Amino acid sequence: MSLEHVLLAMLGTPASGYDLKAQFESGVRFFWSAEFGQIYPTLKAMQRKGWIEGRSEPSPKGPPRIVYSRTSVGTREFHAWLRGGPVMGNERFAWIAQLIHYGELHDLDATERFIDELSRKQSFVRDALADALSGVEIDHPQGDSTMDDILFHEWLALQVGLRAIQARIDWCEEVKRTIHARRERASRKVTEPNSERNGKR
Amino acid sequence: MSLEHVLLAMLGTPASGYDLKAQFESGVRFFWSAEFGQIYPTLKAMQRKGWIEGRSEPSPKGPPRIVYSRTSVGTREFHAWLRGGPVMGNERFAWIAQLIHYGELHDLDATERFIDELSRKQSFVRDALADALSGVEIDHPQGDSTMDDILFHEWLALQVGLRAIQARIDWCEEVKRTIHARRERASRKVTEPNSERNGKR
DNA sequence: ATGACCATGTAATCCGTTACATGATTCG
DNA sequence: CGAATCATGTAACGGATTACATGGTCAT
Hints:
The structure is a homodimer. Chain A is mainly alpha-helical. The first copy, chain A, has two domains: 81 residues, Winged helix-like DNA-binding domain superfamily/Winged helix DNA-binding domain (Arc Repressor Mutant, subunit A, Orthogonal Bundle); 107 residues. Chain A has seven helices and two strands, in the order αααββαααα. A two-stranded antiparallel ribbon of chain A has the order 1-2. In chain A, α2 crosses α3 and α6 runs antiparallel to α7. The longest helix of chain A has 43 residues. The mean pLDDT of chain A is 93. Chain A binds a DNA duplex through α3.
């Protein structure tokens, strides 16, 4: 289970389940997320395994918090997870599966709307990532040489996230132009039916 | 549930559960996949809803096949799914979560090995995607103008998949250079301790 | 006092993987 | 004969989402 290891990673500095959820919402959310319904039971399971330990602390607002921290066993487990090499999940891209079959609609306008919405949705994520990245880069205008190891790796992760999403957005813009040209050709075929021959197979 | 809709999309041409699994293995596998254990029960559920209907056909090799095809109800459901706009799942990238926390190891060699393996794994997928794409493009050297709607959209999907993965591979290569420079600086700090002052925060 | 936020938790449900069971055909 | 491929299915398990329950504080 990867969630256990992701939480273990975040518990390098002690935090409660509530804190961890908040961290998912702000920043890590682009790469991973989880709901309370999964977080709380998982933390208990990790505690049973001896990877983390929790102590109850009074909270100024609301009920007492349970703040978890990694044990030495947990730290060893976490480092083993890192050194085990990249964990590549079977990612599922429903929107690409949709696009593959969009041709069945024979409606280029619909395809364009689809690409437009895709572009807009991804731009939101891109903007958030770009903000996070520039937050790091204004503090370190000479690049990574002034960053410590922790920040350097966080910066790398932000970079690769931004690159991949920007590549998809660029592709969206390019496809819009391709669609315009294709629609041009299609309408010319209708208005001038005595041209060569239409490309239907 | 997206799997139902993905199967529905694929059943534009009739197929058995076994056929659908084979389609996942070859091509669609980069964007979506499913196991028999999920495919067969899902097909039955879709049949109960009236989205598809199956008829048993004798098979030359092995037991009789159940070939499913979309009903008109299923086709309407499928088109509604397409027109509902891009379905963006909460993608989970465990390897980015790993990378974020890799700084804790304070071991640049380990980071480099991680990036190397990431690059190699992704290159496999890239090569397969590139092959599929060139298969389309050697039949259509003038670009999309000679493709019908179906092929055009399949070509778009292959393109965006390739672009995104290539962006990540390019980033890997760039990071390797960054790491070399960083290691250079780190070793110089050790051999010439009387330089400016080291960048630890 | 109403709603927003703090904080933890359980239960129902669903999605997905793995393992297993069955049995026919074909090729070496 | 044994292995590979064809073909369908069930059961057990694990992972993830959603909904619900509880109850405190704080600001409007």
